[in-house]
C-alpha cells in the first residue's frame, strides 16, 4: 500500500467529514513516543487494535466538538480550565477515558461542555437529600459546597450524555474501527 492510499483511508466520518487513518497513525505514534509508551499494548495485538479504536473515539469526538463549536460560534476563549470542570482526578473518571482525554486536550471541547450544560441545575430537594444522607461527613454541611459538588457531577453526566447522543447521530465508524466496547467487533474482551 502506498502512502497516497493510506491518506485516503478513513477510520470514521463526523458530519460527513473524514477522520483519516493517517490521523490515527499520527496519534498512536505520538502516544508511543511519549512517557506512557511502556504501558501501551504491542502494535498489531488485540489490545493494540483496541488502542487504535479508542484513538478513533477521541479523534472523532474532537472533530465533533470542533464542528459543534463552529455551529455555536464558540472559541477557545470561551473555555474554562479543565480544573473548573473536573476539580479532582476522580471527576475525570466519571467522564470516561475518551471524554476525559477530549476535555484535557481540547479547549473547544471545554467551551462546548459549558454551552451544552448551561441549563443543568440541581433541585433544592436533591441538595437537602444529599445533606441528610451525608450529615456525618466533614465538610458536607455547607449548602453551597454540596450544591457545587452535585452541579459539577450533573454537568459531567449531561456532557457525556450529549456526547453519546451526538456520536450516535453524527459519527460513522469504518469497519475495523468500531467502538472498543462494541460486542460485535472481534477484539472485544468484555464478556458476561
Helix content: 55-70%
Unreliably modeled segments = 1-7
Q: Tell me the strand order in the biggest sheet.
A: 2-1-3
Secondary-structure element order, N to C: HEEHHHHHHHHE
State the major sheet.
3 strands, antiparallel
Shape field: globular
Per CATH, which architecture?
Orthogonal Bundle
Distance between the termini: 39 Å
CATH topology: Triger factor/SurA peptide-binding fold
CATH superfamily: Porin chaperone SurA, peptide-binding domain
InterPro entries: DUF7158, Trigger_fact/SurA_dom_sf
Protein name: [acyl-carrier-protein] S-malonyltransferase
Organism: Streptoalloteichus tenebrarius (strain ATCC 17920 / DSM 40477 / JCM 4838 / CBS 697.72 / NBRC 16177 / NCIMB 11028 / NRRL B-12390 / A12253. 1 / ISP 5477)
Pfam families: DUF7158 (PF23716)
Describe, in plain words, how this protein is organized in 3D.
The protein is mainly alpha-helical. It has one domain (3-173): Porin chaperone SurA, peptide-binding domain (Triger factor/SurA peptide-binding fold), CATH 1.10.4030. It is 59% helix and 6% strand. It contains 9 helices and 3 strands. The chain has helices at 3-8, 21-32, 46-72, 82-85, 89-95, 97-105, 107-116, 124-133, 143-170; strands spanning 10-14, 17-20, 171-173. Strands 2-1-3 form a 3-stranded antiparallel β-sheet. Strand 1 and strand 2 form a beta hairpin. The protein is globular. Pfam families: DUF7158 (PF23716). InterPro entries: DUF7158, Trigger_fact/SurA_dom_sf. This is [acyl-carrier-protein] S-malonyltransferase.
Amino acid at each position: 500500500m502506498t502512502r497516497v492510499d493510506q491518506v485516503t483511508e478513513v477510520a470514521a466520518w463526523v458530519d460527513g467529514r473524514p477522520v483519516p487513518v493517517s490521523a490515527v497513525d499520527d496519534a498512536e505514534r505520538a502516544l508511543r513516543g511519549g512517557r506512557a509508551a511502556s504501558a501501551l499494548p504491542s502494535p498489531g495485538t488485540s489490545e493494540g487494535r483496541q488502542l487504535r479504536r479508542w484513538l478513533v473515539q477521541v479523534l472523532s469526538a474532537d472533530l465533533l466538538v470542533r464542528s459543534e463549536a463552529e455551529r455555536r460560534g464558540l472559541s477557545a476563549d470561551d473555555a474554562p480550565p479543565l480544573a473548573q470542570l473536573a476539580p479532582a482526578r476522580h471527576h475525570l473518571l466519571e467522564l470516561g477515558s475518551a471524554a476525559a482525554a477530549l476535555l484535557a486536550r481540547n479547549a473547544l471541547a471545554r467551551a462546548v461542555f459549558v454551552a451544552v450544560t448551561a441549563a443543568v441545575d440541581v433541585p433544592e430537594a436533591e441538595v437537602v437529600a444529599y445533606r441528610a444522607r451525608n450529615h456525618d461527613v466533614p465538610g458536607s454541611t455547607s449548602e453551597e459546597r454540596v450544591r457545587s459538588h452535585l452541579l459539577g457531577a450533573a454537568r459531567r453526566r449531561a456532557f457525556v450524555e450529549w456526547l453519546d447522543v451526538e456520536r450516535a447521530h453524527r459519527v460513522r465508524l469504518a469497519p475495523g474501527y468500531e467502538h472498543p466496547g462494541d460486542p460485535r467487533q472481534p477484539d472485544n474482551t468484555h464478556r458476561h
